[in-house]
Specification:
Among the domains are: about 100 residues; about 45 residues, no CATH class; about 160 residues, no CATH class. Helices cover about 15% and strands about 40% of the residues. The chain contains nine helices and 36 strands. The strands form nine sheets. Strands 1, 27, 28, 29 and 30 form a five-stranded antiparallel β-sheet that branches. Helix 5 packs across helix 6. The protein is elongated, with a radius of gyration of 43 Å.
């Protein structure tokens, strides 16, 4: 049992198929069921239970029905008139009567005391036949009543099961009379999965029902004729040809009015793969009423298929059909033997109404030993005072003969002037899905690759041992030769490309010259400059030194060793093509003045490219541009 929710349980002598609270007494619960017609030893009964004690259920009245007739399949408790509470139930007549075409399926019972003293009794008042069907298996599957109005008016709706065609019968409840006032019968295209009714104004009602893939709405008023209901929503993908391999559409299972303009609808995914609770807004368009999805609550993954829905309004209008103010709604969903409880808010702001997203409050597993067949909230009559003993009762019944009433604690908000369920929503831990696993593996793979590259570049300790573990082909492919970069021709590089040899910052210029010569074509001059581009050097750094390219054995091995040494200090070098780039403006070492020679020597020494006293013959054939202040800044600042 969920924390904070008291529970009372009782086991009766018969399987139970329907339940409902007395709208005038939140502690009185009516249940019905049985073994059906025949000599199976299980009787057909209607029982009245006292749910005053949150930990115990007591039976206060019971009516044993005929064993020749079917068991009650649907149930609703109506208003109280002259001290008697009326109970409406769907009970098929005996097989003999059904064969004769006489199935008085709609039964009315009165619950009350014949004398001032003693327990109340249940007695049959009347029986009616609201629809006629040639199918002997047809029965009254659904029964719903609107909230009783101040003057006693109340609308009821029943729907058939196993009928061809299916039907929906609408009627006015009786005030102690033996006959009902029928509003007529609507023929349906398919069997209704669920139906509900709500009063929208004086003598005006809305009736909604759902088939597998459609929701319908019917307006009932003195001015409106009883015609077929209009479809206000179709499940996407339910009409027309489906593409091969596409999954079947979701299906509607149950619905309840929250307000005249909002519906709570229970939806099952195909193949018992999940369920959701969706809120629909009903609006009147030029073409008629339409429903649009507003909010959705995806039920826990344990809910493979939902079977029932109940709704409670913690701040209903003072009268039926009145204006709805800000309110809190509590919703309960049944699936197999478990119940999921959620809540949402109805808010009004400057004549604009909206529903918040439903939030999961609790989930109670194993409420019953067998499948739940009925679900109902007790009526709630709020007060403006904070009373600690206020509870909202939720009743559920099952084919396992069990009745369970859960008492949800309520708290009063002085600011909002309303009640709320005093249950903290569960903290849902983030689920580790396949998508999360793929993300983690991708991050790990990138991290391993980055560590491998850093190890091969000599910029990280050998944690993975990539140098020894990887084959030479892969090792050479992953080895980063940064800062060896090749520029596009339109960026100033020759057709042979350009290279920034940062790896030689701590090495003599001889190593640099050897590397450059190994990259150059035979006889092709090489242009060298301090690295520019993203380092932001000015225009004067475009003055370069040009080397006559030659060839030198072992230059490539020298490059590899220097790269692994991870030295710094960028120098940008490029191959120069006079046909493409035009003549250069460099001078040989001998042509440079003493100031220029000292400037070049100082800058190269600062960059680590001048080791010791280099012979001037080292620069024989090398062309240098004149060094301006900006050139020096460009070399020294990198």
């Amino acid at each position: 049992m969920a924390p904070g929710i008291a529970s009372a349980k009782v086991t009766l002598s018969y399987p139970i198929y329907a339940c409902d609270f007395d709208p005038n007494d939140a502690t009185r619960l009516v249940v019905a069921g049985g073994g059906g017609a025949g000599k199976n030893g299980v009787g057909n009964k209607i029982s009245v239970l006292d749910a005053t004690d949150p930990d115990n259920l007591g039976e206060i009245a019971e009516a044993e029905l005929s064993k020749e007739e079917d068991n009650p399949t649907s149930l609703a408790v109506s208003k109280t008139v002259s001290g008697f509470t009326f109970i409406y139930a769907g009970v098929n007549s005996s097989a003999k009567d059904v064969d004769k075409g006489n199935n008085e399926h709609f039964r009315v019972y009165a619950l009350g005391k014949k004398q001032k003293k003693g327990n109340p009794v249940i007695q049959e008042v009347s029986r009616e036949q609201l629809f006629v069907s040639k199918d002997k298996a047809t029965y009254q599957r659904l029964l719903r009543l609107s909230r009783p109005s101040e003057n006693g008016e109340q609308l009821g709706v029943v729907a058939t099961g196993f009928a061809n065609p299916s039907r929906l019968a609408i009627f006015d409840t009786a005030d102690g009379k033996k006959s009902l006032s029928s509003r007529g019968v609507i023929e349906l295209h398919k069997e209704a999965e669920d139906v509900d009714v709500i009063q929208t104004g004086p003598e005006e009602y809305s009736v909604a029902y759902c088939e597998n893939h459609s929701i319908f709405l019917k307006i009932i008023s003195p001015k409106a004729e009883l015609e077929d209901a209009s479809c206000i929503y179709n499940m996407p993908g339910s009409f027309g040809a489906r593409e091969p391999g596409s999954p079947p559409p979701d299906s509607f299972r149950s619905l309840r009015f929250l307000t005249p303009n909002f519906l709570a609808v229970l939806i099952n995914k195909p193949g018992r793969t999940g369920a959701q609770l969706r809120i629909f807004r009903i609006t009147l368009e030029p073409t008629g009423y339409v429903a649009n999805p507003s909010q959705t609550l995806f039920l826990p993954k344990k809910v493979t298929q939902a079977t029932g829905l109940a709704v409670a309004n913690l701040k209903p209008p003072p009268i039926a059909g009145g204006v709805q103010d800000d309110a809190r709604f509590v919703l309960a969903v049944a699936d197999q033997a478990a119940i999921t409880i959620a809540a949402l808010d109805y808010q009004v702001s400057h004549a604009v109404t909206f529903m918040t997203t439903p939030k999961l409050l609790a989930r109670v597993e194993d409420v019953h030993p067998m499948q739940i067949t009925g679900l109902a909230f007790s009526p709630f009559l709020p007060t403006d005072k904070d009373t600690s003993d206020q509870t909202l009762r939720l009743a559920s019944v099952s084919v396992g003969n069990t009745v369970v009433v859960q008492s949800l604690p309520l708290s009063f908000s002085q600011d909002k002037k309303r009640y709320d369920v005093a249950i903290k929503p569960p903290r849902s831990a983030p689920e580790f899905t396949v998508r999360n696993a793929i993300s983690v593996l991708a991050i790990a793979a990138v991290a391993i690759l980055l560590q491998t590259v850093l190890e091969l570049a000599g910029r990280s300790p050998a944690i993975l041992g990539a140098e020894e573990r990887l084959p030479p082909v892969i090792r050479d492919y992953l080895t980063v030769r940064e800062p060896v970069t090749w520029e596009k021709a339109n960026e100033g590089a020759s057709s042979g490309g350009a290279a920034s040899y940062e790896a030689f910052a701590d090495h003599p210029v001889a190593s640099l010259l050897a590397a450059l010569r190994s990259e150059a074509a035979e006889g092709q001059p090489i242009v060298m400059r301090p690295a520019v581009g993203e380092r932001g050097a000015d225009e004067e750094t475009e003055k370069l030194a040009t080397f006559n390219a030659g060839d030198e054995e072992g230059a490539r091995e020298e490059i590899e060793r220097d790269i692994k040494a991870k030295a710094g200090g960028p120098i940008d070098a490029r191959l120069h093509d006079e046909e493409e780039h035009g003549p250069h403006d460099g001078r040989t070492w001998e042509e440079l003045g003493e100031e220029q020679k000292k400037a070049w020597e100082r800058r190269l020494r600062e960059m680590g490219h001048w080791a010791g006293d280099l012979p001037e013959t080292m620069f024989r054939g090398v062309l240098f541009s004149e060094i301006a202040g900006a050139v020096g800044r460009g070399i020294a600042g990198m």
